[in-house]
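WP5 quarterly update. Target: Probable phosphoketolase. Source organism: Pseudarthrobacter humi. Length: 816 aa.
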Amino acid sequence: MAGSMGQDSLGQETLDLVDRWWRAANYLSLGQIYLRSNPLLREPLAADHTKSRLLGHWGTTPGLNFVYAHLNRVIRRDQQEMLFVAGPGHGGPAVVANAWLEGTYSEIYGQVGPDEAGMAELFRQFSYPGGIPSHAAPETPGSISEGGELGYALAHAYGSVFDNPQLITAVVIGDGEAETGPLAASWHSHNFLDPAADGAVLPILHLNGYKIANPTILARMPQEQLEQLLRGYGHEPYFVTVEDPDNTEQAHRDFAAALNNCLAGIRAIQGSRRARAEGVGGNADDGGTAAGAPGSGAAPHWPMIVLRSPKGWTGPRIVDGLQVEGTWRSHQVPLAEVRTNGAHLKQLEEWLKSYRPEELFDADGRLRPDVATNAPTGNLRMSATPHANGGLLRTPLRLPAYAAHAVDIAAPGTERISPMITLGSWIRDVISLNMENFRLFGPDETASNRLQAVYEVTDKVWQYRIDDVDEHLARSGRVLEVLSEHLCQGWLEGYLLSGRHGVFSCYEAFIHIVDSMFNQHAKWLKVHRKLPWRQPVASLNYLLSSHVWQQDHNGFSHQDPGFIDHAVNKKAEVIRVYLPPDVNTLLSVMEHCLASTDYVNIVVSGKQPSPTWLGPADAANHCRRGLGIWEFAGSEVPGEDPDVVLACAGDVPTVETVAAAELLKWGIPGLKVRVVNVVDLMRLQDVSEHPHGLPASDFDGIFTPDKPIIFAYHGYPSLIHRLAYRRTNQDGLHVRGYKEEGTTTTPFDMAMLNGIDRFQLAIDAIDRVPGLAEKHSLLRQDLQDRRIQARAHTRTHGEDPEEIRKWTLMAQKESG
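Structure tokens (predicted):
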């Protein structure tokens, strides 16, 4: 047997109160799924009292209500700040029902009052046109995790308690959800939790045996094996098994005892570590549930609960001669034909009445005052906690002036600096100024992405053994590294939604691993922004490096710039994409992103030394504009139309574009070349499609309505056509970008393989400006020959030619 039960302190009066709350929540949950009128059964239930489309998920709901009722008991007893995360988000009826019972729902949504009319509206709106979703969505008070897509609840829970020492987040994990990869990795999260400075997570693994049509792995796993698994993960599991579904009193007592033990265990771990941090003693083994001998450095075994209860508990046992309760048949709507089948309608009425609503609600349909006393008060209500509405707690970051880290230049393109190394020094200062509400998340890539300067002021948090050979590991730290993009994303989402700030640094190709998690967060923000009661939260900032054009020691597997394509499918008011071309623009962009709210910001930057084009002031102006003409790089004549526009977005495409413009200036004197750099990709869209979009007149003024545009882009070429599809000069737009070519090779060879190199861009201009191909065929041939020579040099010497490796704009001008 796992963790032994402590003394049961649940008196009969308290037990009755918890049970009545549970029954009330079950009644409201059932009503949401089935009823559109007659909410308190004032008259015999008729078919037209029910909804024509029955949507929702009953199977997990009674278990969620059971847990919620018990958590309220300990919140009231201990005045404990607690957040509730419902992993089985299909149990949305439960979270909504409890928010209504606590009064929060009616406070926010005045049309859903705390009386019979409000109850009727509560029922009608659920999964109904113009109403609310069936999941624990942004519209649901107290929710930070929708749960429509499973696997993220535990990571969200841990993100919410980082730097929240007073908070306990109780997270219910469905046994179907427990089969997902992200959830399986999330069991390791406690190794990144500092008991001295962070809050705690109480995982409640709810085993009801079935998914939508199949049994679940953990529910069928022998208990001894399951206990070994959870202990191996670092938890002290307390098992609560509902042996007899009718003996709810015993279920209440068993769960109450387990919950008491878990809270005592959490406080023992925290008390020991906090006392030690304050220098007043504390046990080395962190309390009664810790692992390892004193001084072993072993991480504590955090308590958790495994609740086994029948799927669809308290629902109909048999329907049409088939078992329903305790089977997969209760997953969604156990009685599916209440409008056309009299027997089903009668069963539904008996089911509703089994909760004895007359004991729970008064003549006006209000929750009886004695039942209402199970609810905590004010912000201690889990549906009203500010930790689930993080904008209430968010304080702006103290941002250091990026100009102190910016690079002064004598002339454009003369200084070669690593943008990420310089950014690392700025983020170091961000961390130093915001030690309690900013963290850097990444899958083992902080130093690889050249941000190692942050280790001058912080370490990577780590709770298991630390060996002498290890570097920058400590029991507390502002950097969280784990080789799971899912965990980094989930932790950051929970951290942001509960009121803090952060950055997710990742290799560009592997950010795709969280495509679906990004989807869910972007959708959350889209809805969240329209709810006046939800306050703005810090933006989710992706910092992507080790990108597609830097493959010196990586290969084809590390090449995929398509996360941008995926992201721009989401609502325009949420998505921002930045491709800073050098160190100073990167600093300016990141300063803007960290100060922003309610966005997903995607920033892509290389980590290798590259030319610095703009001084600090010019970089800031360029980033404010989002794009601009680089007069220093072109050869156009003021007051005259250019002959060709060379446009670029991305650091490597910018180098090749500026170099191509130089080639054309030397080779074709008098050719009027305009160079346009795009740092804010959304500027390419029309203002009617994106808030950052350029009006048509401005776009035509920069890109011209009829001249050839050669566009070198960081990612897949089709995205530029898609963003600019409404523009006047779409037919004149020719885009070069990544086309799935290349493996481990030199940087310039990567550019050549995909056709964004300077020689190819210059050739494209010759081919597209009328008359040039005939007049300058020798130049075109020379450019082709130089491509061939550069390719041969890489094959012979294993590196790019020196004229490419050491190219600077000034050197080209001098040699010209």
